Structure formats: C-alpha cells, structure tokens
Protein 1
Amino acid sequence: MNRDHIFKEIIRRNERLLRNKINRTFFKGVNTDDVYQDLCIHILNKIRIEAEGSLDRWESEAWLLSVTGNFCIDILRKQKSKKKKGVEISNYTDDASEMDRKAYQSGFGDYNGDDPSKSNVEIDLRSCMLSLNERDRTLITLRYFKELSIKDIDDLTGLTNSAVYIKRAIEQLRRAIDVDYYLDHFDHYFPTDFDEEIN
Amino acid sequence: MENTKSKKNSVLWVGDAGLNTYLNLHKSIQAHYDHNILLYDENPTIEEAHVTTLKDNENPVAYAITTLKQALETNYKADEFDVLVGSPMEVLFTSLLEYYTDQLKQHHIENHENHEKLTTMKVFEPVRFKKTIKSRPEKVVFVNSDGLFKDLKAEAINTIAKNKASFTRCYELDSDPSITNEFFFNLIDK
C-alpha cells in the first residue's frame, strides 16, 4: 500500500496526541505549529524508509510519542547549543542519534545541560574509556581530569611524545562513541590543540 | 437500439482512497457519472467534481467517528447518491457508513413504533405510507489496499462486516486502477 496514505491516516488519528506532547515540551519562544509540521515530515520520511517487518510499530501511540519526544529533545538541545554560540535555530529536521535515544529514553527531565557530571553522556564516555589501553587511559586522566600540562605529563610518565598518544586515544574514543552530535560536547571537554604547549 | 439510463449515476468518493480512485478513473468513464468528493481536511480544486471538506478554520472537527458523524449530521447534507466509494481503513469513510447505518436503524425503530400505533388504523390509511427512510446509497464500494498494518486491517474487516448489511449491494475492490476502471465501466447504465 502507498505508505504516504498510511502516514496521513495515522497522523490524522493522532494529531491531538502529538500536538499535546509538543505543547508540553515547549513553553515559549517556539512556534509549536512549525514543530508539528516538521515532526510530520520527520515521521513521513521514517515511514517511507522503514523495513517491512517493523512497519507495524507506527500504529502504536507509544511509539509515536517516543519519536515525538526524541524529536523535541533534539530541538531543545540544538537551541541550547546554538544559544551558547550565539546562533539562532533555523530548522528542526535533523534525526535523533542512537546515543541520544539511549541516553534520554527516560525523559527530558533527567537531562541537565549545565552539569555534565549528572548527565547520561558522561556515563557513556566513561564506559568508552574502558576500550582504551592502560597507558592511554592514564594519559587521558592526567591531561583532562588532573589537568596537567603536556610537559608535566612527559616528565611524570617518562614519555617524550605524550601529545601524540593523547591525540590517538581521543580519535579512538570518537570512533567508539560514533555520535556526530556529541562531537560538539566532546571537543569542548577534550580539546586536542596542544601546539602552543608543545612549542 | 441500446437501452441506456437517462440519468447518470451519482458517486460519492470518500477520503483519500476515494479521491485516489476517482483521479485514476479514465476520463471517458468519468464522463458517465456525477461526481461528489467528501474529504476531511484537504480541499483540492477539481472542476469536474463537487468537493466538500469537513474540517476548516471555522469547524475544527476532530478526526474521530463520533465527531465526524456529528459533523456529517449538521454540516453535510447526505443527498441521494447511487454509489459510495472509500476505504474501510479510513475513519472518515467508517463514520459515513455508520451515519447511514444509524439512519437505517432509526428508520426501523420508528417504523416499528408506528406499526404498533397503526394497528387500529385502516389498511389504506395514508399515514402508513408516508414514513420513508432518508436518502442513502444503494451500492457501496470498499477499496481495499495491501500492506496495511495488522490493527488497521482488522479494523477494516470489522467495518465491512458491521455496515454492509445497510446497503443493497456491496463490492470489495483492490485499489489497482485497472480493476477500478473496469468496475466503473461495467457499472455504467446499471
């Protein structure tokens, strides 16, 4: 059957439910009609590419609410991120990442963007640290958690090129996480511009 | 000498499936019918058909059977149509079917009540014959589609089973344009 046809029927049946979810998530400063329209486009694209075997889940109210919730969380996160950089949000059409769904499945209320130590993001980074070898974990800890300079780390560990090892370890962490969105947070908390310190 | 009907059959195309079926109808077959289209929230411009939309800024009707039936009763005159076409998966079409079914039930109830009142009246009392049912289509065409979700499919089957008794003739067609074109070609002059 034409999936667009199915999409239209599902959206009509659940319009009030989805609009209520959006209205409960945003309080001010956002045109909820625009969010709803973009959400519809998002859902339509998802339905079009959905595998045949898992298409049935789009009938479920719980699934629609989950998709809507993730969509709204993405918008809110981008708003906070862009506001820090002084850029206004102009669109809401990016998809939520797998890490995003895993981290925020319990609901938006658990997230605190101002205190990363309380967010699920930090927990996931710590588990990714276990994918590094002991030397790299030590170097990451000394550099980013003990905040030692490259020179101090070299003196402490007896290495002459700890900056190179640290950069490689960070690359490995990026591959382990594999979440584009978190690169913004990642680079903010784990910068690798050691050139001034080395020189 | 061909025996053709003098008056064209009027068709009510309901919802997305009805509209889609109408748009896929060959022009030469379209010319043999009077077309009316009933939609929920879209308002396409179609010159050869009379289009009615239930929901607009003044009447924000919710997409549910109860509210749609109320909107049909108050804002939409169920004129006499010969053929009703739609998908039993769509709430709009289901609401319209239930609207007609409710009319038929109400007619039977009133008829039964009047029958008891009329038992003492004479056989040829004119009032016996004055009660007539409101207009409803004789034929209903259920346009079925493949790839439905399980719940929607079950719902469509229930809709057909519940409402088909209210109409003289019921047809179940696949949405394939070649099948619907053939059906409506054969329906001309019937």
Protein 2
Amino acid sequence: MSLSAPPPTGTPAMSSIDARTLGAASEFRAPTRPRGQLIELFRRRKILTVPLLVLAAFVAVGLSAPYLAPLSPTETALGMKLTPPAWLDGGVNERPLGTDQLGRDIASRIIHGARLSLLTTLAGIVLSGAVGTALGLLAGYYGAWVDAVVMRVADMTLAVHIYILAIVLAVVWGPGLKNVLLVTVFLLWSRYARQARAEVLSLKEREFVVAARALGVSAPRIMVRHLLPNILASLIVLSTLQVGFVIVLEATLSFLGAGIPPPNPSWGVMVADGRALIASAWWVSTLPGLAILLVVLSVNLVGDAIRDSLDPRLRRL
Amino acid sequence: MRRYLVSRIVQAIVTLWLLTLVAFVMARLSGNPLDVLLDARATEEDRAAMAQVLGLDRSLPVQYAIYLRDVATGDFGTSFKTRRSALSTVMERLPWTLELGTASFLVSVLIAVPIGVVTAVKRDTAIDIAGKVVALFGQSLPTFWLGLMLILLFAVTLGWLPAGGTGSLAHLVLPSITLGWFTVAGIMRLVRSAMLDTLGEEFVVTARAKGLAEPGVVWKHALRNAVIPPLTYAGVVFVALLAGAVVTETVFAWPGVGQLVIEAITFRDFPVIQIIFLLFGAMYIGMNLVVDLLYGWADPRIRLAEGARRR
C-alpha cells in the first residue's frame, strides 16, 4: 500500500451535506475531556494539596534561583570545606545546609540544582512529546508500512539498555545536557507515539475527519489542525506522569558520570560528590537526595491520583 | 491464534534485528579500540596489522554483515581486554547479577503484594494513601541515593550489615532492598487494580454470604484470582531489575554484569559491550513476547482484533 490516506469509510450521501455542516462537524471534540475530571479530583482529594504545594515551591525556586540563592553554586572556599549544617556542632548560619568538600554552599547548590532539574525535565518532556506525537500521528493516520516501521522502532528503543547507551554517549561526546536529552527522548518518545497512534486510529474514522478529507483538506493539515487538538489533552496528562521519571533519570545519569558534568549543581552530581564521604560528612549526599525525593514523590503522588481518576475501570468501583 | 502467534514472533525478530543495528553502531561510536589496545609508540604498520586481526580494516557494511552472521551463529567474538571469549566473560559475571535480581524480585513482591491487597480493601482511606506513599517511595527515591542512605544507616551508623562487596547472605541484603524497592510501585498498582476488580466479583460476594471470615475472603479467594495479571508481568519486571542493576552494582561494588558494562565501555571492549546490550535487549523482547502470547491465549478478543487488522 502506498503512502496515501486510508479510504474514507462510512460516508453516506456526502453530496447532501453542505459546507457549513462540515465546518460544524470539524468542531467535534473527542469524548475524553480530562480537564473537568482533574479539577474535580483536586477538589475531592484535599490531601493532594500538600504535594501540589511542594511542586509549586519547586517551580518557584527553580525560576528564581539566581535571586534566591545566597551564594554562588560553584564558588569554592576551601577554608570552609565540609562545614556541617547550621543545626549541628560546627555549623554556621551563613551556610545553613553546610558545605561540600570544596567548601561550596550546599543550600545554594540545591537551589540552583532545582533550576537545572526543572529545565532538563521540561526540555526532555517537550522534545520527547514532539518527536513521539509527530511519529504517532503519522503511524496512526497512514497505517500500513509507516505504522509498522514506527511501531517496530518503538519496540526496539524500549529494549535498549539505557545506561549502556548513556555511558557510551558520555564516552563519545563527553558528559553533558545533550546526552541527557537524547537519552530521555530515546526512552520516552514511544510512550507518546503509542498514545497518539491509538487515539488517531479511532479519531480518523469520525465524521469530522472523514468530512475534512472529503473536502480535500491535505493530510498534514488534517493531522495538525483536526487530530492534534483532539489528542493534546491526553498527551499533557501523559506528560505529568513522566515528570518524576525524567528527574530521577537525569539525576541517575549525572550520578553515573553520564549526565550533567560537575561542577554544575545537578542533584545527581551532588549525591555522587558526597558518596565517598558518606561515613564522615553525611550531609553532602543526603540533602540533595532529599530534595530529589521530596519533588519526585510529590510528582508521583499527583500523577498516581490522576492516573487513577482517568482509569475508568478504577473509577467505576 | 496461529496468525497472531506468527505475527508476534515475526515482530519480535524484526525488533531484535533493529537492536543489533543499534548495538553495532553504538559500539563503533564508542571509539577506536586500537587507541586502547596499542600504546602511543605503535607504528602505522602495527595499527594496520592489529586492525586486520580484529577485522576493523573492512568497510562498515561488511563488518556489520560479518557481525550479524557471527551473532546468528552464537559467535560473539573475543573480548579485546581479556582475549578470551566475550560470551564466557559475560557469563562469568551474569550469575552475580541474576542472584541480585532474584533477591530484589523477592523483596519487591514481598513488599508490593501485601500493600496492593490492603490498599484495594481499604480503598480511599488513610491506609490506602499511606500504602501508596510507601510504594511510590521506591519510584521517587533515586536508586543510587537509597543505596547510600541504607549504607549510612545500616553499615556506617548501626554497623549491622556490610557496606558493599560479596561473600555472605548479609552482603545481599542492602543491594536487594535498594534495587527491589524500585519496582514495588508497579507491582503494587497491578495487584491493587486486579484486587479491585476481583473484590467486585460474584464469587467473592458468595464467599462473604457463606459467612467466611473477611481475611479468608480477601487473602485466599480474592488474591488467588487477582495475582494472575501481575504474574504475567513477572518476567518483564525481572528484566527491568536486571537492567537497573547497573546503578546498584556501582554503589555496592557488586561484581555483576553492571560493573562489567562500565569496565567494558572504559576499555572500548566492543564485543563485550555488544553482547551485554543484546543480552538485555533479547531478554526484554522475549519477556514481552511471552506476555503478549499469554494474553492472546487468555483473551480471544486480542488475537481476533489483531487478525482483523492484518487482513
């Protein structure tokens, strides 16, 4: 089969439908409307306020890090190295969370780390979403061999041992943001592609798409103007479920030396810095790890609630 | 069923073939092994001779074709580093990773199943939320950090368990908790969802109506039926644990395949990198094939839909 639109099905008496009806038809929405459900979810489950507040704080800290951090995240002060947090013996108030082995202020590094984590996560998810959605739209709309190729490549990327890929990339190019984003896209695009494909498969048989095609609207335009807006909501929900995963992935790659390189204040790098000091200066590794835990646990609690509320099988009960 | 079976198996083979392509490109990307094997005093002739020995003087497509033939016949080449069979180099380390993976799997199931059951029975109560938080902890704690914290608490502060290495059952405790906790949330979610379905079934209502004690209804009647969906995913979870072991092995100096990966990449040891990469990929593809076939066998709708789409 050639790369052409599948034949329209179920188009009775097309000639009797005038252009205005078709215009109205293209306004049809897919039946899944997660937005209303989400608002209801957050109203009903008051306990979700806590993780939501944590996430708001994370975003706020990330956005305002340069103004919020009392000190530079990379400036070393060997005279003050391994100062414990302020509440311990030997701690000073100017270094509330203590310092690492180079005398850098851990509080400032965690604050800047939030910014780094926020940026990496956003970029990783937007890139994966864009690549995956585009390929999913193509696969779902054209079907046939396009679908087969996209889905087999998707299967293949899932079978790739991601740490091996990441470490090889780090050896080839040196560690950096580029690798983290590449690995993230490699790992996540197929989730978007599957979701987009599945929804397009059912949407493309609906009247508004069939009508648009009958009117001679081009395939790219149908995909972007008619299909994409209808699947966007569910793709955004899917994205919220990936946030925690991407934060942990970035930290893990950075810990393995395959992600963001030192001296950047990535939370993963900070934990790795303190690894050898775990017996003598526990705070160097512990505190940045707590930051990851707090943010990711909050993301996952919210994501889990969203997942449950959108799963009709669970809602029924 | 036959059509479904064949199409799934063909798909798995195609996926595996694509994976060999990636493995090949990636290994070639990771640098020239001649730089590692020969020192700076090597002459051009030395390099050329070595390249010929290793087959690196041929064109890339030819190298790939040879590679593919070798892989198909089970010949994975010789490790550049140890000069021994790459396969046996990997197989020597695999038992360590399998040991860690099995222990982690047990830990994971032992935490996840009770939580899944209790959160389903006590749905939307404080217990439900507490149980979910414990499970979600595993997905929210970066493995490397959890490992360090366990070392800090149980090895450094309390001195109960060793901080790393091997030698006794005690050495296995911290690494398996570290690795196993990660998959708790996934298993728990499957168990919880299956339990919610099962608890609404008529035979559960009947069991209650008969006057059976509630624990018996939940833990015997309902759970026995609810473990089937999670069970089909056991293989996939196990493979995920083995792949995730790279980080845990790094933290605990565990001498498994994960450590070998890092050694092999540092040494540009192509054959070893490729074999590990393919091994994990093949296990993943194989386990997913098993899940698909189990579901196709159990649920006629799946294989019928597939057949209709193909036709």
